[in-house]
Amino acid sequence: MKIFTAAQIREADAFTIAHEPVSSTDLMARAAGKCADWLLDRFAPVHPFFIFCGKGNNGGDGLVIAHRLLEEGYQVTACLLEYGNKASEDYIYYYRRLQQQYAGRIREIADVTGFPELPASAVIVDAIFGTGLNKPIEGWLAGIIHKINDQHGRHTIVAIDMPSGLMADASCRNTPVIQAHYTLSFEFHKLAFLLPENAALVGEVQILPIGLSPDYITHTPVRYHLADKEMMHTIYMPRPAFAHKGTFGHALLVAGSYGKMGAAVLSAKACLRAGVGLLTCHIPRCGYDIMQISEPAAMSVADEVHEHSAHFHEQADARYKTIGIGPGLGTATATARSFEKLLTCYKRPMVIDADALNILSVYPSLLYQVPAGSILTPHPKEFERLFGPSANDFERMELLSKQAVRLQLYILLKGRYTAIACPDGAVYFNATGNPGMATGGSGDVLTGILTGLLAQDYAPKAAVLLGAWLHGYAGDLAAAKLSQEAMTAGDIISHLGAAFLECFY
Ligand SMILES: NC(=O)C1=CN([C@@H]2O[C@H](COP(=O)(O)OP(=O)(O)OC[C@H]3O[C@@H](n4cnc5c(N)ncnc54)[C@H](O)[C@@H]3O)[C@@H](O)[C@H]2O)[C@@H](O)CC1
Ligand SMILES: Nc1ncnc2c1ncn2[C@@H]1O[C@H](COP(=O)(O)OP(=O)(O)O)[C@@H](O)[C@H]1O
Ligand SMILES: [K+]
């Protein structure tokens, strides 16, 4: 799914009105009608509704919703905020309709003192501002936002299109924004919904299709995308019947150090479950028995050094389709030297995670030696160590995309919505996964999966998109069976099979 900017969403609306048999008032009726359907479905008539309307088209949506709920016999107060702006044409149209039929249900509010007393179990609908917000909310309107937010613990707050005060494409940190329990948004996700800084504002997001022009959607280029199941179906490659283990590549995993062999074992198991043909693990001498006993399907090569690996560059030859490096590796000087040598002799795309990323942040010039098309998998702290801090999440996304272009790498920034930046600057968000995966070892599993997919000849972009999707999907299956609390990283691995089956068989 494409993620459009606020300006593009306005363009999509205008294009739809110009090219499809629908007027702007009808499009508003359609959009707001979807919201009303959702509200009617979710809340019984015992809930009194307070619908706060601004004077633009978001407020127009609010008026349509108010009318529909009144028609259905709900108790509704339409709270119209009179802040002086000229009302939009569609707002005026639906205002007149409401005024004619339900004048008694309209309440005009011109300052904070006009904020209504809310009875128990009220539902607040926020239709104050949508994508048209062009500066932070100030003055008494800000006071209304605070008053609504004060109700967060007592009443349900449903935002229409966007929580008012939020901008689709810019940071609104420390400005007044509605804290919604639900956001009912039209047709597309907005970038703002996917960034951690807005997590407490958007609540649960529902995307309601309103029939915007497919022509516009298909032909308009965007930087940001949300990965979806259809995308995975175009990526996934079924295994040919006459395949043999050579078909699926030989991967080298460089991982583990004294006390951190678990990371290496988790990565190795995940790599095998992702379908690699052959796997060799380069591990420190102390990890030899551990790996051999934990995962009989993997071959092991022990380093000369006991507690960490320092000679893996000697291994890195053309036998290996790809290399996954980093989980539990440690950052000993000898390990860093071996990594530097490996980067001078191995030229295929590889997967670089954890301590291998930490080595790159200590020796940043090595970043230029990383083979083009490789996949870096930092969590936010590792990302900051590599590329520096950002003032807010929008700037971090800019930086992510810019660095992927500059270095010609795939950079996967982990999080609730993992963001995957490509060498052409495009960024794909992955929505699978859950907080049960916020536990040590989950990232090691991802490294194994990505390495396994690269070894099987998935192109790096295909591997990183499919790998992130499957990792989260398996995590969701594990959480459904075991709970988010009780699941461990190993459970992500043991549900990978079910994830493949559910997604592709
Ligand atoms: N035909 C369409 O264009 C459709 C639009 N829809 C709705 O329309 C919304 C966008 O409507 P608009 O473009 O009218 O924008 P909004 O309704 O978000 O508000 C824009 C109005 O608020 C004013 N404004 C902006 N920032 C302000 C601030 N900080 N303080 C005070 N006033 C401020 C603007 O000058 C303008 O008058 C969408 O979010 C969606 O809810 C939907 O009905 C779908 C169809
Ligand atoms: N709340 C969450 N929602 C979705 N995915 C999550 C969540 N928390 C963590 N994850 C995923 O779990 C993995 C954690 O990786 P990482 O922080 O590197 O863990 P570790 O280093 O302990 O292995 C990432 O892929 C991340 O996207
Ligand atoms: K809103």
UniProtKB/TrEMBL annotation:
K(+) binds at N58, D126, S164. Residues 9-218 form the YjeF N-terminal domain. It holds the Pfam family Carb_kinase. CDD domains: YXKO-related. It catalyses: (6R)-NADPHX = (6S)-NADPHX; (6S)-NADHX + ADP = AMP + phosphate + NADH + H(+); (6R)-NADHX = (6S)-NADHX; (6S)-NADPHX + ADP = AMP + phosphate + NADPH + H(+). It comes from the Bacteria. Residues 228-503 form the YjeF C-terminal domain. Its cofactor is Mg(2+); K(+). GO terms for biological process: metabolite repair; nicotinamide nucleotide metabolic process. The keyword Ligase does not apply. Keywords: ATP-binding, Isomerase, Lyase, Metal-binding, Multifunctional enzyme, NAD, NADP, Nucleotide-binding, Potassium. Binds 1 potassium ion per subunit. Catalyzes the dehydration of the S-form of NAD(P)HX at the expense of ADP, which is converted to AMP. Together with NAD(P)HX epimerase, which catalyzes the epimerization of the S- and R-forms, the enzyme allows the repair of both epimers of NAD(P)HX, a damaged form of NAD(P)H that is a result of enzymatic or heat-dependent hydration. Belongs to the NnrE/AIBP family. Homotetramer. This is Bifunctional NAD(P)H-hydrate repair enzyme.
